[in-house]
Automatic annotation (TrEMBL):
Domain VWFA: start-end pairs: 1-133
Protein name as annotated: COKA1 protein
Gene3D superfamilies membership: Immunoglobulins (2.60.40.10), von Willebrand factor, type A domain (3.40.50.410)
Intracellular or extracellular location(s): Secreted, Extracellular space, Extracellular matrix
UniProt organism field: Anthoscopus minutus (Southern penduline-tit)
InterPro entries xrefs: ECM_Assembly_Org, FN3_dom, FN3_sf, Ig-like_fold, VWF_A, vWFA_dom_sf
Span of domain Fibronectin type-III: 163-252
Keyword list, A-Z: Extracellular matrix, Secreted
Amino acid sequence: GLSQYSSDPRTEWDLSTYSTREQVLEAVRNLRYKGGNTFTGLALTHVLEQNLKPDAGARLEAEKLVILLTDGKSQDDANLAAQTLKNLGIEIFAIGVKNADEAELRQVASEPLELSVYNVLDFPLLGSLVGKLTRALCTRIKDRSHKETTVKDTPVNTGPQLSPTDLKISAVTSKSMHLAWSPPPRAPRKYRVVYYPSKGGTPKEVVLEGAVSSVQLSNLTSHTEYLVSVIPVYGTAAGDGLRGVTSTLPLSSPRSLRVSELSHNSLRLSWKAAQGATHYLVLCSAAPDGAED
């Protein structure tokens, strides 16, 4: 499967889209480059929520591997999103090109770093990594597959027993909103609540105990559309997430501007206060010729 990202991640094809090597190679040849920003954290969250699910072709018994290819430093918190994937048993290999931040690659990648972090000076040099990376990937899959699992955990996304329902967004103001949902029949260990502006912005995350089914999101930007996700976490697996979208209110404006006490070099302004305002900025300039003073 492959997703491409900038400000907004985009799934190019799912794990179940193609069934032969030739089909995948043809899809790669037809891939159109997506320019833009570098929101790596948002991209990793997209992979978890959209691409590593059974309805996208992820098999419950299969090892989960993510290969991140980036040519820049992330503009959001990639480490937080990567840690969430790694906590769920998903392996991350990080490949940097040109201006990639190697320290960030090492934070994002899974241990051991000598097998999972690669960096080259330009795109044509990626060809030199193919053999080494292929061997590393295959070795990791074999090693993980042969390990005996002593604790049987819940597989990813096995149905409604693991998924919350009925997300309600209320008490929306210019800076906050309240989320509430109905918990699944089987309570999760934790919830991850991820929220970010729909037109690009740094994703933020709140982690809640599994007994909690509501949260107040604060310090939001006014007059902004937000995407929110509520993801239940069971040990080393995640259930289906709830998703919603809503916009914060615009900040209130002052009203009824009046001018009084005019003199040759002064005037007095008065207005009805804007709710919640802590300061006012007053701008004054001479009217252009011919305009009313």
